[in-house]
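Lab meeting notes turned into a lecture example. A postdoc, R.K., suggested we walk through two folding results consecutively so the class can see how the record format repeats. The first protein's sequence and structure tokens come next.
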Amino acid sequence: MGRGESGQTSAQAGGAPPALLDLTIDNITPNTIRINSQSDNARLTYLMARLVTHLHDFARETRLSTAEWMAAIEFLISCGKICSDVRNEFILLSDVLGLSLLVDNINHPKPPGGTEGSVLGPFHTHDAPVLPNGASMTSDPAGEPMLAVCTVKDTQGRPIPGVTIDIWETDSSGHYDVQHADRDGPSERCVMVSDEQGRFWFRGIKPVSYPIPHDGPVGKLLQMLNRHCWRPAHVHFMFAKEGWDRLIT
């Protein structure tokens, strides 16, 4: 692909874009990749080429119908419409498709003996209060009281001090604080820092099982797939320290 003296592609420098052939089922993929390959961003060009390749192969392999293609478009539109500042249906979709965990495993491979990672999920926020060890992060009087005593260690069993730990869970009804319309601040979440012995401890409530949001298009997809929408009881932890790989579990 020709470039002008400025380093731009010929199309960016005012030249003609790559010539295209009459498009057919067989040649539309290389032609689409060709017309999309005029950027100076090599990574973007590569990602777009692979995306187009796999999307086109999927359509050819499944003999995708116009009605099915349109249903997928409408599904994505519905996902966008239900998104808000505190709800991301696309993250939920990514989780259901197994993509979130796959990307995390690719970007954060764990050494032998390391704690396995999990997805961030759609309900993490950035407004959790920083609390001292022993403090309570719950305001739910209906929940069963829980004391969590934890230690952060490396794979050799040595305590790690100064780790920032982001912690969040649902209330006793199985809802995160951001799911309540009358939310006036964070609840059932906090940030702590491990002490010199790598310890941190906090008071919360015993976690309960809860359904993922199933009132939207992703929930309807689960129904069509005959999948249930329940998650086992759990507490989210995200560990971060400069020089160490982040862990979400």
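The second example is placed directly after the first for contrast:
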Amino acid sequence: MAFEIKDKVVLVTGANRGIGKAILEEALHRGASKVYAAVRNIDSAEELVKKHGDRVVPVRVDLEDPASISAAADVAKDVDVVVNNAGVLKVKNALESDAVDTLKFEMDVNVYGLMRIAQAFAPVLKSNGGGALVQLNSVASVKTFSEFATYCASKSASYSITQGLRDSLKEQGTLVVSVHPGPIDTDMGHNAGFEEGAASPTLVATAIFDAIANDHFHAWPDPMAKQIGEAYQSFAKNVVEADMQESVS
């Protein structure tokens, strides 16, 4: 199911800044014919349109608003690759009084948002030959850090859903990619305290399209991610990516 991005149509959620903007620009650099900039506020994509012209098409997507996602799928009927980059992070450990409410918020965006995207766009990808669905997970999907434990829990859940989507969408020819960045130099990363040693968002964008080109499920883009990915590799290959027979005891 590997393919190059040249002449393909891509949709990126959270495309107006940070990792999402880097993904949009890398897609265009690799020859994508069009990129839908899926953002909560259409005006936030104005600079991207000025820079890239009609190769960038803003479309409203709010991962907490199922109607906006369904409407976007109706607009982007020609899409070949959907990159669900948008997400939220709050610095919250599990013992804080509002940790449950924080987790509910992060789950709604990071997990239920992914499911809403997949449900809306899987039929579109199928009708266009399969394509790819890419989910921005995190090293926090496989390792919990206590000071943002709720975020880690939501990203662990989104990783689990991504694994399920890999198997569910295989039959229709859709490649699913799970991306696991470490600390990245973005506003979200800065808010979480990752200012020193944070990697460039371009590493994430490059890893995504390399994974699509090479038919890889996991992508570990930056130095910290690569270190964790190397340690995780055996389990990923022999358990997560293996075709294991389901059994009921």
